[in-house]
Amino acid sequence: MLPTPKKYFVTAAAAEGETALTAFDNALLKARIGNVNLLRVSSILPPNCELDNDLVIPPGSLVPTAYGAIISDTPGELIAAAVGVGISEKDQFGVIMEFSGKCSAKEAEERIARMLEEAFKMRGIALNKTIIKACEHRVEKIGCAFAAVPLWY
Amino acid sequence: MLPTPKKYFVTAAAAEGETALTAFDNALLKARIGNVNLLRVSSILPPNCELDNDLVIPPGSLVPTAYGAIISDTPGELIAAAVGVGISEKDQFGVIMEFSGKCSAKEAEERIARMLEEAFKMRGIALNKTIIKACEHRVEKIGCAFAAVPLWY
Amino acid sequence: MLPTPKKYFVTAAAAEGETALTAFDNALLKARIGNVNLLRVSSILPPNCELDNDLVIPPGSLVPTAYGAIISDTPGELIAAAVGVGISEKDQFGVIMEFSGKCSAKEAEERIARMLEEAFKMRGIALNKTIIKACEHRVEKIGCAFAAVPLWY
Question: Which cofactor does the UniProt annotation name (chains A, B, C) (predicted)?
Fold first, then answer.
């Protein structure tokens, strides 16, 4: 089987670029995961996976990552992305939710909070702690708002 | 290299949610893969990969999965998702096809059957067996129809 | 951790199909990666990852792959996909860019070249070499243009 991740952090950043993909790339760089290979996952925090804000991941690594992203080429538009980790008990799995849209960071955060509540309610487990990060961006030319939970080892 | 999966099952389920992502999450829970990390793949059944309907996958695991999904927020709309596995011989690879759309489960199933036929015809190998699962859902508020082939070890 | 890829190649191909997914499948077959499981990544070439144009990957393998793809069901429409690998020094990571759109292969290639320049400029490293592949396709019924950098071991 593929090894189950043991560490994570939570990050969000926005950036401009000359194209949609380079705006995304620039947001990843600001979010500290621009030089790795994101493998998008949906989106469970493994049991005993520990928060490590100082994680340094070698360039080119394959990094399972839950993320939300929005790219816009409408100058003046406000875009936002948010992620949230919901935790019950340390030795139980948690849930990761991601969101992106044409709204403020505050709205994106509130949405994530409600999504985590719904996810835990559906699973019948207590939501004891949440970690939410969001960013917003007013598009100049081509902008990207990005929020992610990279999972690592 | 990444280890090649050895087991699989076929699943489909639909659900409502308060948001698009929680509708998706709820459909995954019903489909028995709500507490793992789906890694979306396109979409070959490895040689000698065995059907195991009783697979229990530990929470948080990274699970390579071929899937189709549709989310709709149009009340009254009929949505469907289907997946199919086409098999030639046990020791040869198979092909997985996925589909989702605004149609019935029956239409989605028929589409998958035709897609598998085309996939085997293009490869010049005989299609000896198919396993197809589909679900349909009449949207109440925000609904998701989901069908998947999780690959495991 | 997941093992970091050590080899890669660059490929592009276009095809028709009876459906969107089988057009995609047929393009993958032409691109020599139709019988493996693509895991989509964003999109760094690991340090010391070597070009190997004769790579043969076993059927069903999980293959981290950066790719761009476009599918169109508008007869007569010109579609294109391109990928590019930008390399600084062999022992440093490189950057992969992908693009697809309603344009010619030449336009897609030019776009990739500019995206690679921007990506290296943002990282403050020299872009010493690029490998770009593109394809274009005039849609008959349902067509797919696909370009990829499969990463392997």
Answer: pyruvate
Rounded Cα distance, B130 and B98, in Å: 13
C5 and A62 in contact by Cβ < 8 A? yes
When pLDDT is cut at 50, 70 and 90, the band that residue A107 belongs to is very high
Q: Which CATH architecture has domain C7-152?
A: 3-Layer(bba) Sandwich (3.50)
What is the amino acid identity at position A97? M
The complex's ipTM works out to 0.96
Beta-carbon separation of B60 and A44 below 8 A = yes
B116 touches chain C (CB under 8 A): no
C20-30 and B105-123 helices cross at what angle (nearest 10)?
Answer: 20
Catalytic residue from among B26, B43, B72, B88: B43
Dihedral angle computed from the Cα positions of residues C115, C116, C120 and C125, in that order, rounded to the nearest 10 degrees: -160
A46 close to C (CB below 8 A): no
Residue A76 at interface with chain C, using a CB cutoff of 8 Å: no
Q: What is the percent of chain C where pLDDT is above 70?
A: 100
pLDDT at position A90 is 78
Res A7 pLDDT > 90? yes
Which positions of chain C have pLDDT values less than 50? none
